[in-house]
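Notebook B, p. 112. Complex prediction, attempt 2.
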Amino acid sequence: MITLPHPFIKNLLTAPLDFTHLLDEIPMGVLILDTHRRVVFLNRAFEALSGFSPSMAYGIQCYNILRGAACISNCPVLSIKDDNRAVFCETDMINLNRQRIPIRMTTAPILDDNFNITGFIETIGNIRLSQKIDREKSVAYSFANIIGRSPQMEKIFQTLPILAQSDVSILITGETGTGKDLVAEAIHQTSGRESGPFIKINCGALPETLLESEIFGHQKGAFTGAVENKPGRFKLAHNGTIFLTEIGDLPLSLQVKLLTFLDDKIIYPLGSTKGFKANVRIIAATHRNMEQMVALGRFRKDLLFRLNVARIHLPPLREREGDIRLLIDHFFNSYKQQLDKKINGFSKETLMVLLNYKYEGNIRELKNIVEYAINVSTNPTIELHHLPSYLLESSHSIESGQSEIEKQTLKNDNTATAADSLFNPKNNLTTPETWSSIQREIIIEALKIRQQKFWGGEEALYGEK
Amino acid sequence: MIHKITIPLYHEEVAPRFDMATEVLILILSKGNIIEEEKTIILPRSSADDLCHLMLAEKTNTLICGAIEEEYYQFLKWKKIAVYDSIAGNWSRAFHCWNKNILKSGY
């Protein structure tokens, strides 16, 4: 186990300054190298970006830690050796999570009293989000990289910049594939915390014990295998935004810990009594019905109130009038360019099928369908047989009258209305006209729903995904 | 031949980036994991796609590499290639660790 040096800066202010603390407050990744290009220090922002902790990186050649394309093709450190001037470049790196991140890096020499090089300092900034936004700037009817011109989306586009500028906690709800992650990223990118880190945690992806250590960090020796201090995602997101996706899957014990953090803004790593005051903005997202989860005792009411300061509900694609065509064109142009295909467009029949399909997977499904069709098509026009086969099967049922989804929706609507009527004390259901308007099977369904509401049930909770 | 290991190289070290490597070492092992043959392939350009294609053509069993993108990692795993990624340092040391069964991704 490497014991890292704990450097101080002396003679600058009245008392010696803790070097680590000083650099940790900088919202940009900082790497300090010795003359042999070995890492001697990295700050918290770099740890968040690369995934490497200071103890993992200490003494390792910088190109094995930064892992930038420029490190191999044209090492900036080697190119400043002669004129001692800082070198600036835009390149990309691959972090420990195997993500490629575009970065802007500046490398400068560290000089001693006699102007001899004693080391190098590299500052690394993540330009992924700003690059994405630049690319999408030319697209009309959009905010950051979210596209839409339906009235529902226009309302969201009007609200997003206002919410982004404030520092309130936001809860994003919506079906799967509606773009909750994109909205969270866009809010961060247009907020005052833009230069800070954006850390995403999937609350449903890890088991409870691992999740606690991942979110809040742990102290060395807190449990078997905790061989070093781990800062946790909240600490890494200091001065930035933390995005808790699938918040509905957060275990109850961690909900209590999160609640405590939201109250006093101090995190206590596992096994530590010393807290860390984190300045973090929280954005949470879920596809679950949170009110129903609260009613079933699966989610704490007080935590919901704290997260739900501002709520953004993303409508499903089938409810966004006119957006399907806009998105089809957008993905068509984008994939055509990306895949370098000479395709002019869709045939009339294909377009009809695409426009009438009920996208249960929402924008993600539409995007995949367009990508598939462009990949498969060898003609200048995308024909029906270039679409995934399940789409055509569904289109037959549309032609034959109502689609399955429509039928189901109609049935559900009738059932819900019946349930409301049955259990509304204001309604007089004694007249034969009222009873005859409600079919027998609908009444049975309505009773089932009522029963589930009272006694709880997996179907009631997970019915809509 | 009982096992084939591919190591993208950067001089004598494991290449820091899989997609930037232009030199590849292929180790052919015989019984007892003894190196039977060592061959180095120089690629005309760096490309992760070409490297994946080469490994499939060579019927590689194991890849020892530096940084690799998730997309390629998952593809190679799907093709039943054991991938040890985020490995830094001299290739012979990495091979030694693999041989002793102590090589882990990220070390």
